[in-house]
Specification:
alpha/beta, single chain, 7-stranded mixed beta sheet
Length: 499
């Protein structure tokens, strides 16, 4: 492929500076270190790059040996979306659990402790929190990543999360502007559309972002969604009316604007990543996130050269690219100089929050935790497993089986899906007491049918809902965890066993 610059001129350095690429492996490849020397200012980390806190700290030290002011970003929401603990499940409940508790000080403490752990590993930019109002219960990609469906609740917890995270010296990146909650399409796969009018958007979608900006969020991430009331022609990531006129102008935001992953199909399949990146910077974005799926030097070269070519052809004003690059450098300076508050939360604050988020329902209605008759014999855990969305990934374990096995050795488990899931689970359980674990039962008819089958034959089944609790509670005991993080499973297992 023909390249257009040597990597030493200002234009090329600016083009590299606005990129936030990923890579494969648990050490930095030579090409990435070389690009850092040429002007690349940010690196994005994913679960594939992390095996332990010690390894992550060594990796970030390797990056900083090449460029000491590098922004090291990660997609660590806690809850269902974790990269720090991708192979074990998170020590922190996600937003939906925190919203269910509705204690803003607890949310701040959780975010501060998460930020402290990130900072101790050398991470200084977190692509979180999600400020989306989950107003559409059928949303396939937000769900438990949202604090809830009430804009005021989402706003106050978004602000608390931003404050807590940044108190640890980690920049928050509030997402997905102008709000991804009222969608029934996953932008990883296609272009979602929100047809709400401007007044609804102002009251619902924008409220949490106003709160995040007031709390000082250092970055905001755009959404790959079409919102005709704001721009009938372009998705938010590529829209000047959304990014410049609304976010910068009307909302007064002055920090870094980061795009969601440009290889997501909402952009890649409609504009292509090169064209999409040029349009995003022209619209007002300052940083291009790429690397979840495309994670190689060729991608960095393609995007760098697309930006350089757009400037040289007059399509992209050089001043706009320079402005974007300077905002990246400004954030890097902030992360190097911001005072970090001493940790003031317990290391077990995530488990404390998960316990508080539990909701228990029995045949007669709400049940107090202490009134549950505990299991004393190891049960059979039937996990009804839906297809995981790309943001969550399928490599992170979920459920209650591992935690129950720890408390009740001999616990057995199986994963079931499809039309025969209920019958297969009954056969596998044989005579054991059944704990049925579901995730967003309301979105999966096969899952609801499986519970029907189980409960007809085994009405003593305990049901654990680890997604958004929209379906009617049922079972001898119904436990809502508001998320599938490891600590949520632990909290549910404690109730089941009386631990």
């Amino acid at each position: 492929m023909t390249t257009f610059a040597s990597g030493t001129d200002t234009l090329t350095r600016d083009a590299l500076t606005v990129l936030q690429p990923g890579f494969t492996g648990t050490t930095a490849p030579d090409w990435l270190l070389r690009r850092l020397g040429e002007g690349l200012a940010s690196v994005g980390l994913f679960g594939r790059n992390i095996t332990s806190p010690e390894q992550l700290a060594a990796l970030t030290a390797q990056l900083r040996a090449e460029r000491d002011d590098v922004l090291v970003a990660i997609d660590e929401e806690g809850g269902d979306v974790t990269r720090l603990e991708v192979r074990t499940g998170s020590s922190f409940p996600g937003n939906h659990a925190l919203g269910a508790v509705d204690d803003v000080e607890l949310t701040r403490e959780v975010a501060a402790e998460l930020g402290r752990r990130l900072a101790s590993c050398g991470v200084n930019l977190n692509w979180a929190p999600s400020a989306d109002v989950n107003s559409n219960a059928s949303n396939p990609v937000i769900g438990v990543r949202s604090f809830g469906a009430d804009p005021a609740l989402v706003a106050r917890h978004t602000a608390a999360y931003v404050t807590g995270l940044q108190s640890a010296g980690v920049a928050a990146c509030t997402k997905h502007f102008p709000g991804h909650g009222d969608t029934a399409v996953d932008s990883h796969h296609a272009m979602p559309r929100i047809d709400a009018d401007a007044s609804v958007l102002a009251d619902r979608e924008l409220s949490p972002f106003r709160a995040a900006i007031a709390a000082g969020s250092r970055a905001v991430m755009s959404a790959h969604i079409l919102v005709p009331a704001l721009d009938a022609d372009h998705p938010a990531t590529l829209s000047r009316p959304v990014l410049t006129d609304l976010l910068r102008g009307d909302l007064g935001y002055t920090g870094l604007i980061v795009t969601d992953g440009m290889e997501m199909q909402a952009i890649a399949a409609t504009y292509g990543i090169e064209r999409g990146s040029v349009l995003a910077i022209a619209a007002g974005a300052d940083a291009i996130c790429v690397g979840g799926g495309l994670a190689d030097d060729e991608t960095v070269r393609r995007l760098r050269d697309a930006l350089v070519t757009a400037v040289r052809s007059g399509e992209l004003p050089e001043a706009r690219l320079a402005e974007a690059a300077e905002r990246v450098r400004e954030l890097a300076r902030w992360t190097a100089t911001v005072p970090r508050a001493e940790a003031d939360s317990r290391s077990d604050v995530g488990l404390v929050a998960a316990r508080r988020a539990l909701r228990l329902t029995g045949a007669g209605g709400a049940v107090a935790t202490g009134s549950v008759t505990p299991l004393t014999e190891p049960p059979y855990v039937a996990a009804f497993t839906p297809v995981a969305n790309i943001a969550v990934g399928d490599e992170t374990p979920w459920g209650v089986a591992a935690e129950l096995a720890h408390l009740l050795p001999g616990t057995e488990t199986g994963s079931f899906t499809g039309e025969e899931a209920g019958r297969e689970a009954l056969e596998a359980a044989a005579g054991r007491r059944i704990v049925a674990v579901v995730r967003d039962e309301h979105r999966h008819p096969w899952m609801a049918a499986a519970l029907d089958t189980l409960l007809r034959s085994r009405p003593d089944t305990i049901v654990v809902e680890m997604g958004v609790p929209q379906a009617k509670p049922r079972g001898a005991l119904h436990i809502t965890t508001h998320g599938a993080a490891r600590v949520c499973g632990r909290a549910a297992a404690e109730v089941i066993t009386g631990a």
